[in-house]
Amino acid sequence: MHFQTFDAEYVQRLTEGDSMTEEHFASYFGELLFLKLRSRLRSRQLIEDIRQETLLRVLQILRKRKGVEHPERFGAFVNSVGNNVMMEYCRFESRHDAIEERQDDPADDAVNLDGPLIHSDIQRIIRRVMDELSEKDRILLREVYLEELDKAEICRKHKVDPDYLRVLLHRAKSRFKKIYIEQGGNAPFSLGVT
């Protein structure tokens, strides 16, 4: 292969889209890029991708900016664009490979072996706590938290106003919490009482 020199006229024809100049450009620089990349990369597909991307970027740069500042250095310009493209592709490939290599198998959240045991322990403690509460507190907590009845309905049922219902509920929760802790309930369970 013989090396060629370039001038402003060649770059101008390439910028304007002259088909013969484009063919020469693709053939000449395509072969040079192939020789350069072949010694650095193993993947034929990667070499071809970098070649095509380099040629495309050079044409885009020429047509957007209307040429290059130093047409006599056109070969060096194409070479530097090729180096940049190669580094981008290699950086992407190495990041992609490194991520794939470091990934562990994801944890299977579908199967929680401890969940049912913890849940049954908490349920057992809650049942014991509820049994120790007064009937009035037990009914109130059940209606609010388990049956999720409307507070207006609970007020009518117990013949209290909303402000007093809040007081009754606060007292019932405080008693529940006290007994819950005494029963050994240290699991993250809360009825909104601090």
Give the strand tally.
Answer: 0
Count of the separate structural domains: 2
Indicate the mean pLDDT: 81
Q: N-to-C terminal Cα separation, in Å?
A: 83 Å
The percent range for strand residues is under 5%
Using the 3D structure, state the CATH architecture of the largest domain.
Orthogonal Bundle
Rounded to the nearest angstrom, the radius of gyration is 38 Å
Structural category: mainly alpha
Q: Which stretches of 5+ consecutive residues score pLDDT under 50?
A: none
- Topology pattern, helix = H, strand = E: HHHHHHHH
The CATH class of the largest domain is: Mainly Alpha
Share in helix? over 70%
Shape: rod-shaped
Largest β sheet strand count, sense and barrel closure:
none
Q: Using the coordinates shown, work out and report the CATH topology of the largest domain.
A: Rna Polymerase Sigma Factor, Chain: A
Number of helices: 8
Describe this structure in words.
- By secondary structure, the chain is mainly α.
- The chain folds into two domains: 8-102, Rna Polymerase Sigma Factor, Chain: A, CATH 1.10.1740; 116-182, Arc Repressor Mutant, subunit A.
- The chain has helices at residues 8-16, 19-38, 44-65, 74-102, 115-132, 135-146, 151-158, 162-182.
- The longest helix is centred in the middle third of the chain and has 29 residues, at 74-102.
- The protein is rod-shaped and about 100 Å long.
